[in-house]
Input
Amino acid sequence: MAQLDTRAKLAILADAAKYDASCASSGTTRRTSKDGKGLGSTTGMGICHAYAPDGRCISLLKILLTNSCIFDCHYCINRKSSNVRRARFTPAEVVDLTLNFYRRNYIEGLFLSSGIIRSSNYTMEQLVEVARCLREDHDFRGYIHLKTIPDADPALVHQAGLHADRVSINVELPTVAGLTRLAPEKSAPRIEGAMLGMRSAIEDGADARKRYRSAPRFAPAGQSTQMIVGADAATDGDIIGRAAGLYDRFGLRRVYYSAFSPIPDASAVLPLQRPPLMREHRLYQSDWLMRFYAYRPDEVAQAVDPATGMLPLDIDPKLAWALRFRDRFPVDVNRAPREALLRVPGLGTKAVASILAARKWRRLRLEDVARLTVSLAKIRPFLVTADWRPVALTDKADLRAWLAPKTEQLELFAA
Output
């Protein structure tokens, strides 16, 4: 490998990390260095946020330790047989970059992953050394997210949890068949075994903190995972079921979805085209329904097209579910329980909380509800208020077409 300076390595390894979506910094404990001790903070104070072209807010130094890898996963641009320029950081270089970027107010923390070099244990040792050095040698109190390696020694993975706020182990693909076909060197049982071990360690750590204030924190922001969407034949129904199982079995904070993107010199077994990015968006919306709107996984799965197993792209899953179960509507905003109000398309959790608080003092009218939503037309067929009843609107034969966003022809020379 040719000798590269730090700037050249950063260009290569930051670009190589863009395929990993699981880098949100939510859910950790609050730490600051306002007392003059240590360096960094997990809060957003004084942090400059940047936005990627796809709209994601980025405030972490997101890099790979190296994009070299001994594995040959078909869907990965950094696979062994891929013809890409390789680079590798030393742990000391990553530590220096993190500290320098933080002092310049570029970032609030570090997201670090890596290809597998030499062995899983060797790579995990390198990742842990970065986090250890930041925490112990430099008293860094900012956010650290480490991507762990399922095949590594459990003791090394445990060390990662002692230094990182969040750890993640990617399941890679929604189905075991897809993983076996596209990543034959990886094992679904080993991945799930590592996730189960991490859940136990997180729960043990939380229990120890309740008993002893001096007990070390262990991955206080929990663990997450990521699934690649569109690289195999898994339907949205399959993905929703898989995500629900992951939340239930492993106590995950987040499941991230990453739409498969064709890569240079792609394997012949991969699709030639990427799935629509809207498919990724609809999966995130279905994930929100399970996490914040009290939908059971089987209820979310009822929003998919029975023939294709896919979520509709033109309307969101919540509206798709409501259209399929029109007998549950309309809902009276002045009487219905919270669970029923959360099912109304167009009403979010904050809007429902405001409705429950306001109706204690007076009966709500349609104009009151309109102040809480961006689309009054979307909710009118599903609500009853003091001055509004949809009558036959809820049973309107073309209600879906009436509610679906209208497509507009753009003008080539419009101002």
Q: What stands out?
A: The chain has 15 helices and ten strands. The beta strands are 50-51, 57-58, 60-64, 109-113, 143-147, 166-168, 223-229, 254-259, 331-332, 383-384. The first strand starts at residue 50 and ends at 51.
